[in-house]
Design goal:
This protein has 435 residues and is an alpha+beta fold. It is 41% helix and 22% strand. It has three domains: 230 residues, D-Maltodextrin-Binding Protein, domain 2; 90 residues, Periplasmic binding protein-like II (D-Maltodextrin-Binding Protein, domain 2, 3-Layer(aba) Sandwich), CATH 3.40.190.10; 84 residues, no CATH class. It contains 18 helices and 18 strands. The N terminus is likely disordered.
Length: 435
């Protein structure tokens, strides 16, 4: 009898626990921790707990308990698959994966997905680049003709490659970013075309050099947030709190860019110097939730390419984008100015971070950066300078310098630099600046 009573008590306890868990409203978030252009809806947002805090406050009003699950993926494709299966409610991914997401779920009609915000973007397309091994003799994309190039087919990095190649023919090896990076180092491919942060990571590690800067295309590239429409309709207040939390994370990144970069670096094992290149002040990525008209147009312009390679069918982009939830939370803007600024003219403002110092020092121009390095006699941990023509922020040690009539100018690619004069290394540029 005692054993029966004990078993009954355990069953009641177990049922009670199950009931409590069943009372919770589940919210499943799909994100890509190493795609650092989505951190305000992923890695940084998760670490800071802004969403959970807001849901806790929401629960005080609704009487409900919200249970958030975060699922990390390498690319947007598995997030889309899980959303189609109804297993992920909110996801973040790049522009091409977003369009593929919308196309594949449009067959579900109102049960499909909607894009509700932007995480980060670059108005010229600098988030995607093509890199080659340090010893490569290639100077332009045309030099890759007939060779193998690694890319994730259907990704923004793939799109940049195809558009930039023009008539140049290469063999595209469809590989995940990490596989492609290994293939590049082993010599199995001649180049790698990928999205943030792979190009910067490989160049910083001296495992690659930049061959083609996506900003040369002058076509916006972006990442954003997509939600299952049934979830948005059933839990509109939860979606609203997610967007508010995304805004919280965005404001934190703007106010404390180095701390934000350190958080993301720790969570992803990426070097903080690489994260800061993209997400810091004047960074390659501009973080703003607004569904700007220029970004909408960019998405529409991307559809024909994705159709041409068979990755999507027709997609009504205007229907896919739903800005109503965001309008209820934040005032949108068409301004393309990066809110995270170093100070001074963004076309020349630079930073240098010396070993042993807690943070980078801002300087007015790339030439001033060189002078400061000479004056201190210290080895820079890292330096950041904007390309003299297209403005892409890049590593001072890995840009190509030109002495243009006594003015030292940095360029992200050797081909661009060579058009302006004799190409100098960082050490050579330091020597010129010291004269």
């Amino acid at each position: 009898m005692r054993r029966l009573l004990l078993v009954s008590a355990l069953l009641v306890t177990a049922c009670g626990t199950g009931s409590a868990s069943g009372d919770a409203v589940p919210v499943v978030i799909g994100y890509q921790s190493k795609t650092i252009n989505t951190v305000t809806a992923g890695t940084l947002l998760r670490d800071k707990g802004f969403f959970e805090e807001r849901l806790k406050e929401l629960g005080k009003k609704t009487g409900k308990r919200y249970e958030v699950t975060w699922q990390d993926y390498d690319t947007g494709a598995p997030i889309t698959a899980q959303m189609i299966a109804g297993k992920i409610d909110i996801g973040s991914m790049g522009d091409y994966p977003l369009l593929i997401n919308g196309s594949r779920t449009q067959k579900q009609g109102d049960e499909g997905t909607r894009m509700v915000s932007v995480t980060g973007y670059n108005p010229r397309g600098a988030l995607n680049s093509v890199v080659v091994p340090p010893a490569s003799t290639a100077r332009t994309l045309a030099d890759l003709a007939g060779q193998k190039v690694s890319a994730s087919v259907g990704s923004a990095g793939h799109g940049t490659l195809v558009r930039a190649l023009g008539d140049t023919k290469v063999t595209v090896e469809n590989q995940q970013p990490s596989v492609g990076a290994s293939a590049l180092q082993s010599g199995n491919v001649a180049a790698l075309s990928q999205f943030v942060a792979w190009p910067g990571q490989l160049v910083f590690a001296k495992q690659a050099k930049l061959l083609y800067d996506g900003a040369a295309l002058n076509l916006p590239t972006l990442h954003g947030v997509v939600v299952r429409n049934p979830f948005a309709k059933q839990q509109p207040e939860v979606l609203a709190e997610f967007l508010r939390a995304q805004l919280d994370a965005t404001k934190f990144l703007h106010a404390k860019p180095l701390e934000a970069a350190e958080i993301v670096a720790k969570a992803t094992s990426l070097p903080v110097e690489v994260v800061y290149l993209y997400n810091g002040p004047n960074g390659i990525a501009t973080f703003d939730l607004s569904l700007k008209s220029v970004l909408r147009k960019a998405l529409k312009d991307d559809v024909p390419f994705l159709k041409s390679i068979g990755n999507i069918e027709e997609l009504d982009v205007d229907k896919f984008i739903d800005d109503q939830p965001l309008k209820a939370v934040v005032e949108s803007t068409e301004d393309l100015t990066n809110p995270a600024k170093i100070g001074g003219d963004p076309a020349t403002a630079s930073e240098v971070w010396f070993d042993g110092e807690p943070a980078p020092r801002p300087v007015a121009t790339p030439a001033e950066l060189l002078k400061l390095v000479n004056q201190t006699g210290k080895k820079p941990r890292v330096g950041y300078v904007p390309d003299a023509e297209i403005g892409t922020r890049w590593f001072a040690e890995h840009v190509f310098w030109v002495n243009d009539g006594g003015k030292l100018l940095p360029f992200t690619t050797e081909a661009a630099a060579a058009k302006r004069g004799a190409v100098l290394t960082f050490e050579q540029a330091l020597a010129v600046a010291g004269k």
